[in-house]
DNA sequence: AGTGGTGCGAGAATAGCATTCTCGTGAATT
DNA sequence: AATTCACGAGAATGCTATTCTCGCACCACT
């Protein structure tokens, strides 16, 4: 996607203005169409995932469902993984918003953190009532194949937690010498991973950790006293 | 495999003793051969992994390397995932031993825990100097497809950490109300996952957590005071 | 209206892998 | 000697992702 919008930046000043505008007009239209198509792919994939309860769909399914073509798909996405990444980022962004909203309901910094952590825990849990959570079930896959991109996808959440943590620090709630950003990352990952580790298919549910336990553990990790 | 050894269990007591022994003899020989073959597959896979630095090998590669046949492979393994699982379990068992040995060098319970956690952290790190650590890089895959088995594979480590944690508790080093086993699980997973999250390919190394940081975080999570 | 370019649908072709199946052979058992 | 068994060799199958090839419809410009 990036290649097509690359050239203009350099030669723009050498070309006659009318030509620029003409190009821009058709370019804009093209971009619009492209966006719509991408949207359709995204929506179709999302629909399949939530209804099928799995991220194991084939590209063909997405294509059929979106009433477009394979050709088009590969014209707009570098591959299946880009589609997944896009969906993933989106889900995380939405989750971050949701958590932000929930946290805002609390007045105490520590309470905000607690609410945020516990909600994140629930969202990351491999739930039977699947919707967004499904995303966390292929997160591992992505972590393997595209760790850098996953980091980027995590950034909205990391930002959010860093903010909350910084507020806690400002309120003097953290232990001396605490680094808000590091603690935010640590807490976030601890919560997310431990949530995911819970949901096996066997009967060994006795070891499954609860949101409270994890929060307890984490909060001791950064709280004053 | 299960079908062929099914009948004996029932009629065994009705058969003459000599026959039983005869059967047992040939059975034992067969088992021996089978074990050797399995070993060869395992060794070959291990070799490929460490030399190639990835767990993305094909079954064919393993077969070729072990100088056996596909047929044989599928006769001894239910599929590729069983091979991986076997390797995984093995690696974790060895790691557990290694950690146990390292921890034993310390006299204070908390020090033992610290050494254990930090070593575990290093072992789980996506290292360039790859050997056993590589196993942790496909752990996520397995976690997705065979969570129950992964739990089993983790058990040696969990046992180890639970012991260390219990010792700490006995020494009064844990905060009141602490549940050693839960804390052990929590600590273990926190260390492992955070170690893995570190190694991206991009330049964002500034956020990478260190063993000390993680230990610091965890220990605050369970220590008294 | 005609014409060349472009985007795109349809779907065939290719390729990588796991898994299965078939055949033939040599060794062990009877 | 006949039968059975385990196994190697490798062809066959099945599933996907990804690429490629055609041909059509739409658009700007003449």
SSE blueprint:
The structure is a homodimer of 225-residue chains.
Chain A: H1 8-11, H2 17-52, H3 59-66, H4 70-76, H5 80-104, H6 109-124, H7 134-145, H8 147-170, H9 180-198, H10 211-222
Helix pairs in contact in A: 2-3, 5-6, 5-7, 5-8, 6-8, 6-9, 6-10, 7-8, 8-9, 9-10
The structure holds a DNA duplex (30 and 30 nucleotides).
Description of the molecule:
The structure is a homodimer. Chain A is mainly alpha-helical and about 220 residues long. Chain A contains ten helices and no strands. Chain A has helices at about 10, 15-50, 60-65, 70-75, 80-105, 110-125, 135-145, 145-170, 180-200, 210-220. The termini of chain A are far apart. Mean pLDDT of chain A is about 85; it is low at about 1-10. The interface between A and B is medium-sized, with 35 and 35 residues. Chain A binds a DNA duplex (30 and 30 nucleotides) through helix 2 and helix 4.
């Amino acid at each position: 996607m990036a290649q097509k919008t690359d050239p203009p930046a350099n030669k723009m000043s050498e070309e006659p203005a009318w030509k620029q505008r003409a190009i821009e007009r058709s370019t804009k239209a093209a971009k619009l169409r492209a966006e719509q198509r991408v949207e359709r792919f995204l929506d179709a994939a999302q629909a399949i995932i939530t209804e099928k309860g799995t991220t194991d769909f084939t590209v063909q399914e997405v294509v059929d469902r979106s009433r477009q073509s394979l050709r088009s798909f590969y014209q707009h996405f570098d591959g299946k993984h880009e589609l997944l990444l896009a969906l993933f980022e989106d889900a995380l962004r939405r989750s971050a918003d949701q958590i932000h909203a929930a946290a805002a309901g609390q007045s105490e910094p520590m309470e905000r953190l607690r609410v945020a952590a516990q909600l994140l825990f629930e969202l990351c849990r491999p739930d039977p009532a699947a919707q967004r959570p499904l995303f966390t079930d292929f997160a591992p896959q992505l972590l393997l194949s595209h760790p850098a991109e996953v980091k980027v996808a995590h950034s909205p959440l990391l930002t959010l937690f860093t903010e909350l943590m910084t507020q806690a620090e400002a309120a003097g709630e953290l232990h001396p010498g605490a680094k808000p950003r590091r603690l935010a990352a640590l807490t976030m990952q601890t919560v997310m991973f431990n949530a995911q580790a819970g949901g096996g298919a066997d009967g060994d549910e006795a070891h499954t950790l609860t949101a409270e336990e994890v929060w307890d553990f984490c909060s001791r990790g950064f709280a004053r006293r």
